[in-house]
Design goal:
alpha/beta, 7-stranded mixed sheet, 6-stranded mixed sheet, 16 helices, 22 strands
Length: 502
């Protein structure tokens, strides 16, 4: 426990007010480039969580009646404010994640794109109608909001992932309780300030803080209807199992082991550039990072070029324009990756580039890790089986496209994959047979734009309906079907018409 008075405490956001918590448990927020403490975040008390949920529940009764075009206009105002404060948000985000400025701006922008899609909520809330399903009987469906929704977000995208969640849920007529990662709470609070400035009514968005104890309280609360989560596999399983046991609708996005298949006919200069960027970008701390290169046939000959390219890449602080990426989020995260690198060496893989001893001038206490490349990797090695979540790329050689497809389909994860080839038939075969939810063809990280949905499969996702796009609207709403019959003889006419005045 830390003395919260030493550094400004991060507030809660309850019923439209930023309030300091009465908690006696606090967590340090650090700058990963220096490990200096920049804030203290509270472990929200049960009574404070109750206040947030109660406020969200009471607000829902009014908010669900707000016309859909008015909810869309709120999102239009919000996306403009986010654009106006884009660079400011990126700088704040960099301070708590360590991301370089370009990465941070991308984080914010991808969130803005989802808010733009939320502004299209009217067309996404349309139901269906069939006239004369029987004699003089019509049926039609209505899309209606659920109530209080909850989001639990990770450290690696503190703007984008909250913006995946609460704008779509609120635009659909719900209210929302957000629990951002305790490692990066500052960006979420600024998002809330701008949402309020955009005209969001008090109570539609609440923010509470904390760790597992607070999450478990949210998961069990009877007034919360849905849970949205992004994070590691063990936590995603816990979220999904606990939430569904308490009869909630849950979408839990988990880990990944994303493969890029390189065919012998691919343009190798592009392949090298894309492999480097997609493996070490954001320090490898993203669920869509490419962490496995599957080299088909003589495509393995690119390893020397890949090695040379990775040796040129350097991490650095956010304002270093020459830095390719920033530090890892914490000393513990760095140590975990170091342990996996050491396991790779001990299990017989060839470490072509070793970033274990990386340092950045002037920042001796940062969580730095240089690009790391392994060749000669087999599927029984820990560096293949585990999601490393660091700037580490492993290479596996196979003889045929069929072998590559089998290898990927045998992996438990199914978040993203890609193939680089000049052959349309190879690309079509790959995209058809691969058991992965998001596929890139000559695109390294195939994250869909928000009018689609983020569609991880298998061990990368627990639930049925995915984030943003049409699936998000279905996740945050319920369908009501009405069957109506009216009788011709009840139609009033001429002199028999009675007008009732109030």
């Amino acid at each position: 426990m830390n003395d919260a008075n030493l550094i400004s405490p991060v507030p809660l956001y309850i019923n439209g007010e930023f309030v300091n918590s009465s908690s006696n448990q606090w967590i340090e927020v650090t700058n990963p480039a220096t490990n200096a403490v920049i804030a203290n975040v509270p472990c929200t008390t049960e009574s404070e969580i109750e206040s947030a949920i109660s406020s969200a529940g009471a607000t829902f009764e009014q908010w669900k009646e707000v016309p859909v075009p008015d909810r869309a206009r709120l999102m239009l105002s919000y996306q403009q404010l986010l654009k106006d404060h884009h660079d400011e948000l990126a700088q704040l985000l960099s301070s708590e994640t360590g991301k370089n400025f370009a990465d941070a701006k991308g984080d914010v922008w991808r969130g803005i794109e989802v808010v733009e899609q939320a502004a299209n909520i009217a067309s996404l809330m349309m139901g269906e109608t069939v006239e004369n399903v029987a004699s003089d009987i019509d049926s039609y469906s209505l899309i209606q909001p659920l109530g209080v929704c909850c989001g639990i977000t990770p450290f690696n995208f503190p703007a984008m992932i909250p913006l995946w969640m609460f704008p779509m849920a609120i635009a659909a007529g719900n209210t929302f309780v957000l629990k951002p990662s305790e490692q990066v709470p500052l960006t979420a609070m600024r998002l809330a300030e701008l949402f309020e400035q955009a005209g969001a009514p008090q109570g539609v968005l609440q923010i509470v803080h904390g760790s597992k104890e607070q999450v478990d309280y949210l998961l069990a609360h009877p007034d919360i209807r849905t849970i949205s989560f992004v994070g590691s596999v063990p936590v995603a399983k816990h979220i999904y199992q606990t939430g569904t046991q308490h009869l909630k609708r849950v979408q839990a996005f988990a880990g990944a082991k994303n493969h890029m298949v390189v065919m012998p006919d691919a343009k190798m200069e592009q392949v090298v550039n894309h492999l480097v960027g997609s493996s070490v970008g954001a320090a490898g701390q993203r669920c869509m990072a490419i962490s496995v290169a599957v080299l088909v046939g003589n495509a393995s000959e690119i390893i020397p070029e890949l090695k040379a390219a990775m040796q040129k890449v350097k991490p650095g602080v956010s304002d270093d324009s020459n830095a390719a990426y920033g530090p890892l989020i914490s000393p513990a995260a760095k140590q975990r990756v170091l342990n996996l690198i050491e396991q790779g060496k001990q299990q017989g893989a060839t470490c072509e580039v070793d970033g274990s001893h990386c340092q950045v001038d002037g920042y001796p206490d940062g969580n730095w890790l240089g690009p790391t490349l392994f060749s000669g990797v087999s599927t029984d090695m820990a560096i293949y089986q585990q999601e490393i979540f660091g700037p580490v790329l492993v290479c596996i050689g196979v003889e045929t496209l069929d072998e590559a497809i089998t290898l990927i389909n045998n992996n438990p994860y199914g978040n993203g994959t890609s193939i680089f080839t000049a052959c349309g038939a190879a690309a079509r075969k790959f995209q058809h047979r691969i058991q992965v939810g998001q596929v890139g063809v000559n695109v390294p990280i195939p994250v869909p734009l928000p009018f689609f949905s983020f569609t991880g499969w298998r061990g990368s996702f627990y639930g049925d309906l995915h984030a943003y796009g049409k699936q998000a609207v279905r996740f945050y709403t319920e369908t009501k079907t009405v069957t109506a019959r009216w009788f011709d003889e009840d139609i009033p006419d001429g002199p028999n018409m009675t007008i009732h005045l109030r």
